[in-house]
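Quick one:
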Amino acid sequence: MRIATMIFLTDETITPVRLARELEQRGFAGLYLPEHTHIPVSRESPHPAGGELPAEYGRTLDPFVALGQAAAVTERLSLGTGITLIAQHDPIGLAKQAATLDHLSGGRFTLGIGFGWNVEEAADHGVEWSTRRALGSDRLALMRALWADEPTAYEGEFGSVRASHAYPKPVQPPRGPVNGPRTLIGGAAGPKLFAQIARDADGWLPIGGRGLPESVPKLRTAWEEAGRDPKQLQVVPYAVQPSPGKLAHYADLGVEEVVLQLPPAGEGEVLRALDAYAAYL
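Output:
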């Protein structure tokens, strides 16, 4: 099983360069970074985990800039977003960012996408909350038109692009209906999400990994009904607090990669956490 990590990197934590080097030297498989452009002070959206919203949410580094630094000082470490709030991006610009990072890293980039929880943050980006999922799907389709080998036009409900020369192309080859970087979709289990994963992604990025014995068979059914190769489905539990029993349980479900949560802290605390996680490598 591949053991990757995620962390809220901020202006107060360990740096991307220091962390990436430590992860690769120690044998960890990857680094995933979350995204929040800003957190409006006047906010009615509750924190999904309950309680007060931790300060790091309003201090996150831009994941693409930070992962670019990580890519430059590593050779094997996989690099991912967990998650990119796709509805909040211009899709033409995001397609260029993702393709560039995948190109410069030699195909090591994973585009983890999701639809968010903070209504106020999304509103500042001009996102109508009730349509954010459809908007995100539309933007991903537009991005994939730009990633196609030949100039390809796209006309969608929310946006369009002319057939265009758009380079660099992502390194990773097409997989069934999916092209571009490895793509995982985050979100709570349900028929709509699973149908979208089967149509648009390489797999699922479930936060915490709870309830997988019940949800993974349903996802596999949706996947196979969409005509996808059962061997290609990837389920990657995300932001996990590990234990030997938990990881063994994931392995029994066919999970091949787990993303462990690191503290959003300075160098000393993060390195101590890596020392503790080394037992799982």
